[in-house]
Amino acid sequence: MSTVFNGAFATSMGSYLTIRGYARLNDIATCSFANSEYQRDLKKDHVEEIERFFQIGEDLFFPEIVLSVPLETELEQGENWAEKIDPLRTLLEGKRFASKEAGIDIRPRAQKGRNDLRRYDIFVGDEKKPFRRIDGNHRLAAFEALTDLSSDYLSPFCILLFNHDNARRNEKALFHNINSKAWPLTSEETYKGIIDFRNDFPDDVLEERFGLEYLQCRQLKDRLDFTYLSNLKNVFGKNKGQDECARSVLIQSLQDVRKQTDPKAALDPEAVFEAIKRINDTYGDKRLQACTAQGLFAACLFFQLSGDRSRGTYEQFTNWVLRTHQYELQSIHAADLIKIFGKIAQSRKRQVFVSMQFSEDTKPNFDAIKSAVDDLNKAHELDIEIRPIRIDQFDTGYSYEINAEVLRLIEDSGLLIADLTHGNKNVYQEIGYLMGLNQGKGLAHENFLLIHNGSIGDAKKDIGFNIAGIKQLRLNDTNALREAVKDQVSKFYGLG
Questions:
Q1: Nearest to residue 164, comparing CAs of 105, 256, 88?
Q2: What structural domains and CATH numbers belong to the chain?
Q3: Does the reported pTM lie above 0.85?
Q4: For 193-215, how does the pLDDT look when each residue is reduced to its tens digit (9 = 90+)?
Q5: Phi, psi of 279 (to 5 degrees)
């Protein structure tokens, strides 16, 4: 049994031949497909968003779905190319056109009046998909995914009729024009009428129909006093000459954070408010004040709210942003920024800072540590390798104060190995710094390893009373030291 589409036939804007009308969404989906040559891959989040829109069922409206169909005449036996008809001319003349191969039959209806638009019926054969989706693929995919929706939903459609020879070029040009030529309404303009009017959209309606971030935006927006949050004025479009963007920045940032944590979990508005105040303090740096990128603000919000230290801390993230000039980017995608720094944080966690006296006779100790680490990297084929560093071999590519850089490297590293051989005072200072950091953060002293090589130094002279009670690897043989370090580092990183 054929599926029938009926619509008005006209040349749109003096260009393409079109048939416009209404049809059941189910029929449009069944008789069409997405051409992979130009149609983008389905975005899961967008499809799910439209599914929710369908399921809520209020204010349900979409613009027309744009389809195309290439028309080609099949020659009957005995016919030659000279007798081949032009499908578009045939339709313009008000005649019927059919293609058995495509499974399509386009028939004219009698005009009621001289000034009436001509109408055509399009008959589509069973199990045929003659129409190609130019605009509306996500809507149709969402509809197809929901089996409990009414099969009688009607949708406007526009079918563009092309000669087979130029169909592919025309489809790609239209897909580009539809997705690139329109000037989109700014997010702020669309959000304002929804967020600001409680009588039209009470809190429960706002959350149910538009999402939790819309409700939280309403809860937070009026609390953000930019007299006091002056460092964030640029981000939220509050400076003279800027376009207001507070609602869109809040909603997009809250969505970005939830996607990186638990998409189903609600963020605590009070925690978000306090995080924004702390971010304002960070943006006191003039370099950050000049940045308007919403993605950078959202990434800062994520690191303020996240308890996942494996991705790095807020302080580490903001220091990295300043050091690497991320703030100079005009457009920043929060998810990408978080992912990149997460990889850097993992790399830093695998960084082992070696604190020791740098002298010729202690060189075997560092060689033993490096050899132990190399063995672990090779044995476990780590995608991010464990990397021992020592300050005298570290090249940042820029000048720095030795003491400041040492302390930063200690804080960034996952593990500190302190060689007590010869009792160097700087080694004690670096151990004390890390112990202070641990205590300030409420962490156990599990991220450092104390070693001593008795074949080089004298433990009685080298090791002070203030750390005598802390577990140490005291060995009198360099090879034994190497194996002991390998065992401890393996246990620290959970390598078995």
A1: 88
A2: 3-180 (no CATH), 187-341 (no CATH), 350-492 (3.40.50.450)
A3: no
A4: 889 888 888 999 888 878 889 99
A5: -65, -35
